[in-house]
Fold this protein.
Amino acid sequence: MTIKTTTPSSNGIKVLLIYTGGTIGMLENPITKGLEVCDFAYVAEHVQEISQLPFGIDTLTFEPPCDSSDAGTDLWVQIAEMVTKYYDAYDGFVVLHGTDTMAYTASGLSFMFENLGKPIILTGSQVPIGKLRTDGKENLLTALEVAASKDNEGRAAVNEVCILFNNNLIRGNRATKVSADQFNAFQSPNYHNLAEIGIEIDFNQHSMLPHPTGPLTTHTKLDTNVLLLKLFPGLSPEVIDACFNAPGLRGIVLETFGSGNAPSNERFMKVVREAVARDIVIVNVTQCPQGKVQMERYETGRTLLSAGVLSGYDMTAEAAVAKLMYLLGLLEDSEQVKYYMGVNLRGEFSPC
Ligand code: ASP
């Protein structure tokens, strides 16, 4: 992978644009009519406006670019390694990524970077850049502007992993994809957006993470022996049993009802207690799009709490999965993993 200079800098600021794939750079297959990824030259050709930006842009294309539904955590690691390699050389980073799993990648990266002092802005589009009504051009240009922005003291205006989509600047580990076909595809159900974006870009500095005091550390060891299970009435105990007893499993994110409630029947609870006894870390997040887990509220939640299930507070399922992978990769001792699941590491949940 080689870096290409796309536009030179006239104000000394430089942004690295990393193209991983996604709809933004897709073309229609003439035979199947399905959308397929193609190279960055195609994207660049359609956004000639970037040459009018005062800061410099260099580009890096992942080979081959992918549909983000094909992406695994190896893509997160690749992005993290590239950002780390070029961290000192750029003021900010924009990652072009498919929308389908963008919230997972953004969550994963948010945990992988400790003491991040520069913006990493993920964006993409719902309509390919070559189509007349594309949202890709505006998303890309705004993401680049955000990545190049400075505060009054000359520091990065944003020092977080974020998603920029349809003029919403969202903390990466608070984002979730809410629409398969609207331009307003991402929301942050439990946290404010990080900027008001209209004619001007007004950053909500009070909502941002504090600037780091230590050097950047990148953690690339992730443990993917994790399960995300959404409960529903009628979910068979045999299926739960099989899932919870999967070989190698170390962590479970349980998407429960309402404020963190689950069936309290003995068959279900026995499986949960046995998993906890085998040192499997179980985290409770709500399947409601908004709000937080409060297991003390109902008897059906209390039973989970007493079995050793942890609260995921108002974390998205994406953030909970990514945080578990990160902590299980970092720490051998499941007691420590449990402790840090309850610590707000990167602004991923709201303090109670
Ligand atoms: N399937 C595409 C992807 O995630 C969808 C998109 O980019 O909007 O790569």
